[in-house]
Amino acid sequence: VGTAKDDIKKALAASTMSQIGYMILAAGLGPVGYVFAIMHLLTHGFFKASMFLGAGSVMHGMNDEVNMRKFGNLRKFMPITFVTFGFGYLAIIGVPPFAGFYSKDGIIETAFNAGGFKGLLLGGITLLGAAITAFYMTRVMVLTFTSKARWDDDAHPHESPALMWIPIAILSIGSIASGFLFKQGDACLLYTSPSPRDAHE
Questions:
Q1: 113 burial class (0-12, 13-18, 19+ CB within 10 angstroms)?
Q2: Per-residue model confidence as pLDDT tens digits over 99-149
Q3: CA–CA gap between residue 199 and residue 76 (Å, rounded)
Q4: Residue 16: which of 136, 107, 144 has the closest Cα?
Q5: Other Cβ atoms within 10 Å of 144 Cβ, number
Q6: What is the pTM of this model?
Q7: Quick check: 201 pLDDT over 60?
Q8: Closest to 50 in 3D by CA, of 92, 20, 19
Q9: What is the dihedral sign for C-alpha 103, 105, 108, 110?
Q10: Helices (H), ranges, the chain
Q11: Of 66, 93, 113, 151, which sits most exposed with the smallest number of CB within 10 A?
Protein backbone atom coordinates (compact mmCIF):
# COMPACT_ATOMS: atom_id res chain seq x y z
CA VAL A 1 0.00 0.00 0.00
CA GLY A 2 2.78 2.41 0.91
CA THR A 3 4.44 1.97 -2.48
CA ALA A 4 1.28 3.07 -4.32
CA LYS A 5 0.04 6.06 -2.31
CA ASP A 6 0.71 9.57 -3.57
CA ASP A 7 -0.86 11.22 -0.51
CA ILE A 8 2.04 11.86 1.86
CA LYS A 9 -0.09 11.21 4.95
CA LYS A 10 -1.47 7.95 3.55
CA ALA A 11 2.01 6.74 2.65
CA LEU A 12 3.12 7.36 6.24
CA ALA A 13 -0.03 5.66 7.57
CA ALA A 14 0.71 2.56 5.50
CA SER A 15 4.22 2.64 6.90
CA THR A 16 2.79 2.68 10.42
CA MET A 17 0.84 -0.52 9.73
CA SER A 18 4.02 -2.12 8.41
CA GLN A 19 5.92 -1.26 11.59
CA ILE A 20 3.07 -2.54 13.77
CA GLY A 21 3.44 -5.81 11.85
CA TYR A 22 7.10 -5.84 12.86
CA MET A 23 6.13 -5.38 16.50
CA ILE A 24 3.51 -8.13 16.45
CA LEU A 25 5.86 -10.58 14.76
CA ALA A 26 8.55 -9.80 17.31
CA ALA A 27 6.17 -10.18 20.25
CA GLY A 28 5.36 -13.68 19.03
CA LEU A 29 9.02 -14.75 19.11
CA GLY A 30 9.20 -15.11 22.88
CA PRO A 31 10.77 -13.03 25.66
CA VAL A 32 13.65 -11.68 23.57
CA GLY A 33 11.36 -10.77 20.70
CA TYR A 34 8.96 -9.10 23.10
CA VAL A 35 11.74 -6.83 24.37
CA PHE A 36 12.55 -5.71 20.84
CA ALA A 37 8.85 -5.31 20.02
CA ILE A 38 8.47 -2.83 22.89
CA MET A 39 11.74 -1.17 21.95
CA HIS A 40 10.53 -0.75 18.36
CA LEU A 41 7.23 0.64 19.63
CA LEU A 42 9.17 3.35 21.45
CA THR A 43 11.71 4.15 18.73
CA HIS A 44 8.97 4.13 16.11
CA GLY A 45 7.00 6.57 18.23
CA PHE A 46 9.81 9.10 17.92
CA PHE A 47 10.60 8.89 14.24
CA LYS A 48 7.07 8.37 12.96
CA ALA A 49 5.68 11.22 15.05
CA SER A 50 8.40 13.52 13.69
CA MET A 51 7.57 12.48 10.12
CA PHE A 52 3.82 12.95 10.55
CA LEU A 53 4.44 16.41 11.95
CA GLY A 54 6.90 16.96 9.11
CA ALA A 55 4.15 16.03 6.65
CA GLY A 56 1.97 18.64 8.34
CA SER A 57 4.78 21.17 7.93
CA VAL A 58 4.96 20.36 4.22
CA MET A 59 1.20 20.77 3.91
CA HIS A 60 1.42 24.12 5.71
CA GLY A 61 4.01 25.34 3.24
CA MET A 62 2.13 23.97 0.22
CA ASN A 63 -1.39 25.34 0.75
CA ASP A 64 -2.61 22.06 2.29
CA GLU A 65 -1.60 20.04 -0.76
CA VAL A 66 -0.99 16.36 0.09
CA ASN A 67 -0.18 14.92 -3.35
CA MET A 68 3.55 14.21 -3.46
CA ARG A 69 3.46 14.41 -7.26
CA LYS A 70 2.84 18.14 -6.81
CA PHE A 71 5.85 18.63 -4.53
CA GLY A 72 9.54 18.29 -5.38
CA ASN A 73 12.68 20.27 -4.52
CA LEU A 74 11.19 21.38 -1.20
CA ARG A 75 14.53 20.92 0.56
CA LYS A 76 15.52 24.38 -0.73
CA PHE A 77 12.41 26.05 0.65
CA MET A 78 11.89 24.01 3.82
CA PRO A 79 15.40 23.14 5.01
CA ILE A 80 14.46 22.48 8.65
CA THR A 81 11.54 20.27 7.67
CA PHE A 82 13.79 18.47 5.20
CA VAL A 83 16.52 17.76 7.76
CA THR A 84 14.17 16.66 10.55
CA PHE A 85 12.07 14.54 8.19
CA GLY A 86 15.32 13.10 6.87
CA PHE A 87 16.35 11.99 10.35
CA GLY A 88 13.05 10.12 10.67
CA TYR A 89 13.57 8.61 7.22
CA LEU A 90 17.06 7.34 8.10
CA ALA A 91 15.70 5.93 11.36
CA ILE A 92 12.80 4.04 9.83
CA ILE A 93 14.88 2.43 7.10
CA GLY A 94 17.34 1.22 9.74
CA VAL A 95 20.49 3.18 8.94
CA PRO A 96 22.96 3.05 11.85
CA PRO A 97 23.27 4.74 14.27
CA PHE A 98 19.68 6.01 14.04
CA ALA A 99 16.99 4.62 16.32
CA GLY A 100 15.32 2.20 13.93
CA PHE A 101 18.56 0.35 13.30
CA TYR A 102 18.75 -0.94 16.86
CA SER A 103 15.15 -2.05 17.19
CA LYS A 104 14.64 -3.42 13.66
CA ASP A 105 18.00 -5.19 13.63
CA GLY A 106 17.09 -6.84 16.93
CA ILE A 107 13.79 -8.08 15.49
CA ILE A 108 15.44 -9.41 12.32
CA GLU A 109 18.14 -11.19 14.30
CA THR A 110 15.62 -12.70 16.70
CA ALA A 111 13.50 -13.91 13.78
CA PHE A 112 16.45 -15.69 12.15
CA ASN A 113 17.43 -17.16 15.53
CA ALA A 114 14.06 -18.94 15.71
CA GLY A 115 15.92 -21.75 13.96
CA GLY A 116 15.22 -24.11 11.10
CA PHE A 117 12.64 -23.39 8.44
CA LYS A 118 10.70 -21.15 10.83
CA GLY A 119 13.75 -18.95 11.33
CA LEU A 120 14.45 -18.72 7.61
CA LEU A 121 10.81 -17.91 6.84
CA LEU A 122 10.33 -15.28 9.54
CA GLY A 123 13.80 -13.82 9.03
CA GLY A 124 13.17 -13.58 5.31
CA ILE A 125 9.84 -11.85 5.94
CA THR A 126 11.47 -9.28 8.21
CA LEU A 127 14.19 -8.59 5.63
CA LEU A 128 11.60 -8.24 2.86
CA GLY A 129 9.60 -5.86 5.03
CA ALA A 130 12.72 -3.78 5.66
CA ALA A 131 13.47 -3.63 1.93
CA ILE A 132 9.92 -2.55 1.04
CA THR A 133 10.00 0.08 3.79
CA ALA A 134 13.27 1.45 2.42
CA PHE A 135 11.74 1.62 -1.06
CA TYR A 136 8.53 3.48 -0.27
CA MET A 137 10.10 5.81 2.26
CA THR A 138 12.82 6.71 -0.26
CA ARG A 139 10.00 7.39 -2.72
CA VAL A 140 8.44 9.80 -0.21
CA MET A 141 11.75 11.61 0.27
CA VAL A 142 12.49 11.87 -3.45
CA LEU A 143 9.01 12.96 -4.54
CA THR A 144 8.74 15.51 -1.75
CA PHE A 145 12.20 16.96 -1.20
CA THR A 146 14.84 16.07 -3.77
CA SER A 147 13.24 15.73 -7.22
CA LYS A 148 12.46 18.63 -9.55
CA ALA A 149 9.74 21.08 -8.55
CA ARG A 150 6.29 20.06 -9.77
CA TRP A 151 3.99 22.34 -7.79
CA ASP A 152 1.17 24.48 -9.16
CA ASP A 153 1.78 28.10 -10.09
CA ASP A 154 -0.19 29.38 -7.13
CA ALA A 155 1.96 27.45 -4.63
CA HIS A 156 4.50 29.41 -2.62
CA PRO A 157 6.46 26.87 -0.55
CA HIS A 158 7.97 28.20 2.66
CA GLU A 159 9.34 26.93 5.95
CA SER A 160 6.96 26.53 8.86
CA PRO A 161 7.21 28.86 11.87
CA ALA A 162 9.18 27.85 14.95
CA LEU A 163 5.99 26.91 16.77
CA MET A 164 5.69 24.01 14.30
CA TRP A 165 9.28 22.95 13.70
CA ILE A 166 10.59 23.04 17.29
CA PRO A 167 8.46 20.03 18.38
CA ILE A 168 9.60 18.20 15.26
CA ALA A 169 13.21 18.96 16.09
CA ILE A 170 12.76 17.65 19.63
CA LEU A 171 11.27 14.40 18.31
CA SER A 172 14.19 14.16 15.90
CA ILE A 173 16.53 13.81 18.85
CA GLY A 174 14.69 10.59 19.65
CA SER A 175 14.97 9.53 15.99
CA ILE A 176 18.72 9.84 16.30
CA ALA A 177 19.52 8.69 19.83
CA SER A 178 16.69 6.66 21.37
CA GLY A 179 17.75 3.29 19.95
CA PHE A 180 21.30 3.68 21.20
CA LEU A 181 20.12 4.80 24.63
CA PHE A 182 17.66 1.91 24.96
CA LYS A 183 20.47 -0.54 24.22
CA GLN A 184 22.69 0.75 27.01
CA GLY A 185 23.21 -0.98 30.34
CA ASP A 186 21.40 -4.11 31.45
CA ALA A 187 17.88 -3.00 30.52
CA CYS A 188 17.39 -5.79 27.98
CA LEU A 189 18.95 -8.40 30.22
CA LEU A 190 16.21 -7.89 32.80
CA TYR A 191 13.81 -9.43 30.31
CA THR A 192 16.00 -11.96 28.55
CA SER A 193 17.99 -13.55 31.37
CA PRO A 194 16.59 -16.75 32.86
CA SER A 195 15.25 -16.64 36.35
CA PRO A 196 17.28 -18.35 39.11
CA ARG A 197 14.76 -21.20 39.15
CA ASP A 198 15.04 -21.68 35.39
CA ALA A 199 18.84 -21.61 35.61
CA HIS A 200 18.76 -24.25 38.36
CA GLU A 201 16.50 -26.49 36.31
A1: middle
A2: 999 999 999 999 999 989 999 999 999 999 999 999 999 999 999 999 999
A3: 59
A4: 136
A5: 26
A6: 0.87
A7: no
A8: 92
A9: negative
A10: 8-27, 31-61, 79-92, 99-112, 116-141, 162-182, 189-192, 196-200
A11: 113
